[in-house]
Amino acid sequence: MLRFQRDTLALKCAGLTADQLRTRAISPRVSPCSAWSGHAAEVERGWFRDVVNGERGRSPWTPPGSTDRADFDVDGADADGAFAVWREECARARAIVAAAPPLDVTTSHGGETYSLRCVITHMIEEYARHNGHADLLRERIDGTTGE
């Protein structure tokens, strides 16, 4: 199901130009697919690398010399670069899951305890919610509908 949700996000964004991917289709606070690929990459990184695998990696959008994670800049986004980072994070997440112990083994992060099953379920929910948004925005941008 997580693979299906990831594939759906890619499908919603496929065929749009870089300008269309950066277009703010609804309001200044809501942006289309390039922002979601950046956000999705950060969510993949955070849940699978940080929480499940115990890594403390830097975001590709963190300025050099900074320790703070930077927000993804939609206006200056390189759509192809954002999707490449997202695809890399998805591949890394799949490798972490494949190498992980059973789904019910837990890990602690930030004072909370999570199982891999919980993380995967959360990711399905995260993608499903954003894919609904992407569906509406894609229809607004060029009229394309469907899964």
Write up this protein.
This is DinB family protein. It comes from Streptomyces roseicoloratus. InterPro entries: DinB/YfiT-like (IPR034660), MST-like (IPR007061). The chain is mostly helical and 147 residues long. It has one domain. The protein has a two-stranded antiparallel ribbon. Strand 1 and strand 2 form a beta hairpin. Helix 3 packs parallel to helix 4 and helix 3 runs antiparallel to helix 5. The longest helix has 27 residues. The radius of gyration is 16 Å and the shape is globular. The mean pLDDT is 82.
Task: Output the keywords.
147 residues; globular; 5 helices; single chain; mainly alpha; two-stranded antiparallel ribbon; MST-like; 2 strands
Concise description?
This is DinB family protein. With 147 residues, the protein is mainly alpha-helical.
